[in-house]
Specification:
The chain is an all-alpha fold and about 120 residues long. About 70% of the residues lie in helices and about 0% in strands.
């Protein structure tokens, strides 16, 4: 997989996570709904299964040789990041400090602290 292909995948997840966080930040009811969905094993399994199929459709040409287990492992990591970003605790950072997207020189980072 080339660096451009990796960056394309990372950019996709940055957009997906940014959208999820923006909706949850704007509407507290949606934050509660999303956090509840990611907290319950049954709904989390539905989210992961759906996302695995979606990712396979979008990225199969860039993930040559990946089997279902590898896609499932990747989605478990991504859904964990999504849940950790949505779940609010006493020690949670604000959204502007939690999530940044940068596309400088074709690079991106999913999560990065902003001073």
């Amino acid at each position: 997989m080339s660096i451009q292909e990796v960056n394309r995948i990372k950019n996709h997840y940055c957009l997906e996570l940014s959208t999820l966080v923006a909706i949850a930040e704007e509407f507290s009811e949606m934050n509660d709904f999303i956090a509840a969905a990611y907290s319950h094993p049954m709904t989390l399994e539905l989210i992961r299964a759906n996302d695995v199929e979606k990712v396979k459709q979008v990225f199969t040409e860039y993930t040559n040789g990946w089997d279902d287990e590898r896609y499932t492992e990747m989605e478990a990591i991504v859904s964990g990041i999504e849940y950790a970003t949505i779940m609010k605790t006493e020690h949670s950072a604000s959204v502007p400090h939690m999530l940044t997207f940068r596309a400088e020189r074709g690079q991106s980072s999913i999560l990065r602290a902003v001073p």
